[in-house]
Amino acid sequence: MAVYLGLDLSTQSLTAVAIEVSDRERRVAFEESLDFDGTLPQYGTRHGVLPQKEPLVATSSPLMWAEALDRMMQTIARDSSIALADIQAISGSGQQHGSVYLGAAGAAALASLDAARPLEEQLRGKFVRPESPIWMDSSTSAECAEITAALGGPEALARLTGSRAFERFTGPQIRKFYKELPAAYRSTARIHLVSSYAASLLAGRDAPIDPGDGSGMNLMDLAERRWAGEALAATAPDLASRLPAIAPSWTVVGPLATYWRARHGFPAAKVVAWSGDNPCSLVGTGIVSEGRIAISLGTSDTLFGIVPQACFDPSGTGHVFGSPTGGYMPLICCKNGSLAREAVRDQFHLDWSEFSDVLGGAPAGNGGAIMLPWFDAEITPTVLEPGVRRYGLDPHDAAANVRAVVEAQMLSLANHSEWMGVTVSRIHATGGASQNPAILQVMADVFGADVCVVGGGNSAALGAALRAYHADERSRGREMPWPDVVAGFTEPWPASTVHPIPAHVAVYREMRKVYAACEAHALGKGPDPQPVVVAFMRGAGKVAGP
Ligand code: ADP
Ligand code: XUL
Structure pTM? Predict the structure, then answer.
């Protein structure tokens, strides 16, 4: 039976999913995660991120990612649940926006990996930047302003690349590096995204960037799916020569490098271009046709859908990425996702089961108490000075704070995704926190839609495996429609469906206005929200029960 492997190099872990596909059967045959902090403690990461003195800087280790990949490939090779020889193609998903800087020696090392020595040993010292900036970085406001000015303003940049300038996007990150360390920039031979770096390791050659991940850089012409010369020029000199090519998401980069075959016993499977974790999740949650959305509750919380035409968010909050299925992918991303929920859980010394009980026991609407959960700098909306803001919320009340953090996250996702103009009756949920039904109930109530878990929570790795399948078929001359590619893998589990509670839906319809008023006030863009809170408490807020 044909086997396809998907790898997800995300913020906190590396996950592998292998699928088996035949005319008669389709199933997930292997699923395994390796968490960076626990498995590779020598790198000193916390939640996959290296410690920093500067609060707005966030980095991780490209060497650690390589070692994780080597370990995971060894685990897969030793596992008896799949026949290695049946692996036809491998693709992957990387945390978006993060970048890897290789010197000439690094680029050469990639092309001549020695199967007798571990990957990590061969790459050590080969990075111009031993620490890679990642998506959690918010330190490039000055560079965002410079790029925006050079490109004619935020709207012009968003029209061209799908997003206004964002601190974590790769272009502003590259510009900051070039400005601070020009000599190091000059000695950089290749700048990869996390996704194209990992694909290059597998193929033992320079892999392209796909439009799904390329659109998270402020460097790609979204409609044309090629580097935008004016954006490159506004970012750093001679940037084109340092970037890999942009190629379709289904590009076969080459066979798996000799390293993996000789060292771990893999076949010469096709390495398919990797994409970003959200674009891969789009496929792994089955959002391959319009009118559906998915919400991923991973380290970040993201909400995304699919549209046929290139567009942009006129409010400047959201992004439009290239979809790895060929269309376009509107998305919003909140940085204070799982780690904010964990902060509240830990503050009140709860485990997830207690967190869920407390959450389910508190009333919908939380008595009008609001938290703005900016434990860390926030992306949606832009908040560069972290700090939790509370309105009518006792900071010592466990139930109220648990309820407040989850309500805030869902209300914010609902309010800030309005520009997408999608009304849905069903949301596909994924990511680590999607295994928590109490959180999914708040999601269902705020959006007024059924919520079901798809892709077993590991939709990015599953989506990568499905993309490998699609690309393999295509390379054999069979163009499969996407609904046929994902069939049998992304149908919602009926038992997992959470239905909205009508009384709660009514509460949240009103509470969205309260949240928006508190958010505007906290950002210095609106008046004291007290009258809005009082009106809410006189109306919808007072009728809410748990
Ligand atoms: P990423 O892919 O971004 O590294 P994951 O999708 O693997 O992240 O999600 C990891 C997060 O899932 C953890 O940080 C944790 O907070 C969250 N998580 C795991 N189990 C639960 C649970 N039962 N309830 C809520 N959150 C959970
Ligand atoms: C999306 C984003 C995050 C990362 C990490 O724009 O920044 O979702 O992809 O998962």
Answer: 0.96
Give residue-wise pLDDT tens across range 378-396.
999 999 999 999 999 999 9
- Checking if the pLDDT of 439 tops 80, the result is yes
Residue nearest ligand 2's atom 7 by CA: 135
Q: Quick one: 393 exposed, middle or buried, by C-beta within 10 A (0-12, 13-18, 19+)?
A: buried
Mean pLDDT over each residue of the chain, to the nearest integer: 96
Tokens coding 57: 């800087």
> Residues 230-252: pLDDT tens digits?
999 999 999 999 999 999 999 99
Handedness of CA 100, 255, 465, 71 (dihedral sign): negative
Say if ligand 2 is within 6 A of residue 48 CB: no
pLDDT digits (tens, 9 = 90+) for 187-231: 999 999 999 999 999 999 999 999 999 999 999 999 999 999 999
pLDDT digits (tens, 9 = 90+) for 92-122: 999 999 999 999 999 899 999 999 999 999 9
Give the pLDDT confidence of 170-195 residue by residue, as tens digits. Answer: 999 999 999 999 999 999 999 999 99
pLDDT at 543 over 70: no
Helix locations, 204-337, DSSP H: 211-214, 229-235, 258-264, 277-284
**Type of residue numbered 55:** P
Q: What angle do CA 458, 464, 468 make, to 5 degrees?
A: 145
Give the model's pLDDT for residue 290. 87
For ligand 1, the distance from its centroid to the CA atom of residue 16, given in whole angstroms, is 16
Ligand 1 near 299 CB (within 6 A): yes
Cis before 381 (ω within 30): yes
51-to-34, 48, 57, 471 alpha-carbon distances in Å: 20, 10, 9, 38
Residue from 8, 10, 95, 335 whose mutation best tests the ligand 2 pocket (most atoms within 8 A of CB):
95
- Three-state DSSP at 90 gives strand
What dihedral angle (degrees, nearest 10) is formed by the CA atoms of 541, 543, 544, 546?
150
The tokens of 29 are what? 């045959």
Question: If you measure from the C-alpha of residue 75 to the centroid of ligand 1, how many angstroms do you get, rounded to a whole number?
Answer: 22
* DSSP per position, 19-56: EEE-SS-EEEEEEEEEEHHHH-GGG--BTTB---SSTT
Tell me, using a 6 A CB cutoff, whether residue 135 lines ligand 2.
yes
Tell me what pLDDT residue 289 has: 87
Q: Is 18 helix (H, G, I), strand (E, B) or coil?
A: strand
What distance in angstroms lies between residue 157's CA and the mean position of ligand 2's atoms?
20
User: How far, in Å, from the CA of 320 to the mean position of ligand 2?
Assistant: 13
Separation between Cα atoms, residue 43 and residue 50, nearest integer Å = 8
Q: What is the CA radius of gyration of the chain?
A: 23
